[in-house]
Amino acid sequence: MAIEVRIPTILRTYTADQKKVEGSGDTIEALFADLETRHPGILDRLVDGGELRRFINVYLNDEDVRFLGGIKTSLTDGDSVTILPAVAGGAPSGNDAV
Hints:
Radius of gyration: 15 Å
Order of helices and strands: EEHHEEEEE
Pfam family, one: ThiS
CATH topology: Ubiquitin-like (UB roll)
Low-confidence stretches: none
Protein name: Molybdopterin converting factor small subunit
Strand content: 25-35%
InterPro entries: Beta-grasp_dom_sf, Mopterin_synth/thiamin_S_b, Sulfur_Carrier/Prot_Modifier, ThiS/MoaD-like
Helix content: 10-25%
Structural class: alpha+beta
CATH superfamily: Beta-grasp domain
CATH architecture: Roll
CATH class: Alpha Beta
Organism: Streptomyces zagrosensis
């Protein structure tokens, strides 16, 4: 089963700078385990204590997996998984400063 996984810039050091990689698995959890065998170290950046890390968003065919079943979400051949780190913060500008 081939699953296309889109990798964010910050994690490309684990994928030899590849934007997309292929993996396999019948769930997100199995897919991540497969990615770890091909790209050692990536799993710790995605999962903590058996759950997605708080600031990592994962989308299955444009649907947030947290609303589908988390890392237990089922996959089928040809699915597309996108990994995105959450973006937060920034400094207030102009008159917004406190």
